[in-house]
Specification:
By secondary structure, the protein is of the alpha/beta class. It contains 6 helices and 9 strands. The structure holds S-adenosylmethionine (SAM). The site of S-adenosylmethionine (SAM) has 17 residues, from strand 2.
Length: 220
Amino acid sequence: MSQTQAWDTYSKQKPERRSTNAAGQSTWFNWTQYPDHGPGAEILGLSVGGAALDLGCGKGGNLAHLATLGAQAVGVDVSLAQIKAAGARWSDMQMALHRTEARCFLEETGDSYDAVFSVFGAVWFTDPALLLPAIRRRLRPGGVLAFSQRPPIEGCYGCQASYINRSEDEDPLVVKRWDYEPDRWAELLTEHGFSAATARVLPAPPGPRKVGTLLVRAHA
Ligand SMILES: C[S@@+](CC[C@H](N)C(=O)[O-])C[C@H]1O[C@@H](n2cnc3c(N)ncnc32)[C@H](O)[C@@H]1O
């Protein structure tokens, strides 16, 4: 089973974003796994007309929000099901959507970006030794890379397995992800030529769930 098929399967299980958030907005940016929680698009430092690239855009909710703020919004996702869902949901938005693998896109495009971001997206599911140099080449000087994902499980670092469940009669599908502690992410970014790298775990909102969100940011 290929990575593409795994993510197409995930797409069928993942509900679309709500039509409005708790503040009554029809588009918004969410870095975390919790609704109405955490910082917003300001993390990207984009100006109106700035170019933003979402690696693993999924159903496109964050990218659509950037489009409403006046960004040139470009989304990449390896799953055709995800890209189709994004195109259908946000058909009235000015967004360029590409069904392709993130590193392939970065290596083939001649475009450059003011911000590259990934929310539980391709940056989590691609070897950073291969992806970070490819991102840096496509960021304009001073541009921002920001990404979020679950924090690592203590002691489980580097390449890990993520499972996408199917029916009881079928084995789960497996995709690879890369987990590191915040300090190691900051080091990795610095080693790959980024500057001002910061990485922190945002606490979960009050309630029964305790796992926070790792948020990483650096400049090209
Ligand atoms: C957990 S979902 C998150 C989607 C979206 N960013 C969101 O916040 O809802 C991960 C997404 O990354 C995409 N993805 C995973 N690996 C990728 C890769 N190497 N290149 C492009 N897309 C990838 C998957 O198809 C999926 O849509």
